Amino acid sequence: MDFGLNGKTALILASSKGLGRAVAESLAGEGARVILTGRDEAALEEAVKGIRGAGGTADWLKLDLSAADAADSLAERARSLAGRVDILVNNTGGPPPGSARDIDTSVLMSQAQTMVANVIRLTSLLLPDMESAGWGRVLTLASSGVEQPIPNLALSNTLRGSLVGWSKTLATEVAGQGITVNMLLPGRIHTDRVDQLDANAADRQNKSVDEVRTASKASIPAGRYGKPEEFAAVAAFLCSEPASYVTGSMVRCDGGAIRHV
């Protein structure tokens, strides 16, 4: 299948490693020019080098999403670098684990700037170019916790959940202009973040990491953690030309972990 991404430019947030990097690699493999972002310059250099080595076209821009002017600065630099962004993949790191009753409101507001406010602001800044072109893709990577809250990840469940209503509303506003807006929900995809969460759970439950991981895998119908490249393949499809009639949707990539319909 031709994804129709040759000549398109994709901006991927938080893409020096993990799911963001996997998505960048997948989009580059389909012919898109990708712009990676993150705080770790060495990791970004390594990721871009790998994409270029595989025959892809890639650049990177340093970005601290917690900064108040992060969205405006990134939009300006991305346009200066590429002229126009056709595909925006919104991705942010996960907040600290913890219970709902123990949420520190100062931490909540700080994380909201990074995970919500700057994501919405950046999308709004880049939409006019997509509207002018009559084509665009906005894909927000969230978490299965927005459909089935994950224990001890109260901040993530809260903040990522707030993007659901925004994404669905935006999708209805721009669908007639050739722009799709979707969310992709990862379940247990094996990344450094998941390793950290498993280690945290092991400490909290006074168990070994292997015991926690075994129990976690047993709760997933597929019986295993997902691979970043499996998740990234779904992301690439949602950003593709053939997916032009898929919008306003939340797509799960979780091995069947979410049990409700």
Automatic annotation (TrEMBL):
It holds the Pfam family adh_short_C2. Belongs to the short-chain dehydrogenases/reductases (SDR) family. This is 3-oxoacyl-[acyl-carrier protein] reductase. The lineage of its organism: Bacteria, Pseudomonadati, Pseudomonadota, Alphaproteobacteria, Rhodobacterales.
